Amino acid sequence: MPDVSANPKLPAATELAWLDDPSIAPQVVTLTAGTLRLVIAPAIGGALAAFYESTANGPRHWMRPASHAAFTERDPLRMASFPLFPYCNRIRNARFGFDGAIVDLSGNDPRFAHALHGNAWRRPWQVGALTQNSVDLHFEHEPDSRIAGDWPFRYRARQRIELSDQALRITLSAQNLAGRPMPFGMGHHPYYPRTRQTRIYADVAAMWHADAHVLPTRLGPHPAVDALRRDGLSPDAFDLDNNFANWAREATIAWPDESRQLTMTAEAPFDHMVIFAPVDDSQLCVEPVTNTTDCFNASGPREHVGGCVLQPGEELSATVTWTPKRM
């Protein structure tokens, strides 16, 4: 078994300066394969801190690297990517009806009026099996009635993270440990470098239009759908924080000015994709998810809404792969 007791020396770069902080370095796990590197922060929501290629000119980032504040403030929103369990995106007013009762998630985070992204991204994950190029991360949720808005179902989540010299592969899985059915969804929330020339390509069927609270109103056509399917979508073209239904489970983020691209592929039931590209902003997310926003309250065909119900003991697993390519 390779020696993984210490992280390998990383190239000096402003974006990765936090690795020189003695209070941060012990918090991360680094995987290596060929020239690819993946830095993981298990204690900060099981998040990825950096995914890059080591080059003679310094790191070439395939995801936006974490900021120093992401570590000091333990904020997954400023990481490179983080897992979403047991649902993705917002739940209207932090409430929904299920199995004859109201599930009240209000109060779990005063920053948000609507429940956001579940709870696994707010908790530390445990490191399991670890090699030079792979790691298992585990999170088990035990409901606590003393915590306002706590998810009331017991479940176990896992990330199997594998890095080859060609790609990053993450298998997400969850098992319902409650003695009753549990509503469920999962995903990952990657941020990408954003430039004026960045383009996104994906075969999608339609977009969920949203209100001022970023909650879905109707599924239908939009110029962004046409751009994604044809000439590529510029992140600057629209002010987006929207779900796209029934994509082909493949999307490419391209940086033609840098002669490179990153292709993300996903297995079912990752049948939904979110694009977060706010206007006049540096953020860009293209997220594989199993459910649309507010899926537990949404009406419509299951293929348009997503999500599922896990029976007691039932487990769901699916893989997302990111493949970099130099043109």
TrEMBL record:
**Which spans of this chain does the record mark as coiled coil?**
none
Entries under InterPro entries matching the protein: Aldose_1/G6P_1-epimerase (IPR008183), Gal_mutarotase_sf_dom (IPR011013), GH-type_carb-bd (IPR014718)
Gene3D superfamilies hit by this protein:
2.70.98.10
Question: Which EC number(s) are documented for this chain?
Answer: 5.1.3.3
EC top class, in one word? isomerase
Instruction: Name the UniProt key words of this record, in alphabetical order.
Output: Isomerase
| GO-annotated molecular function | aldose 1-epimerase activity
Highest taxon, organism lineage: Bacteria
What protein does this entry describe?
Aldose 1-epimerase
User: What organism does the record attribute this protein to?
Assistant: Paraburkholderia caledonica
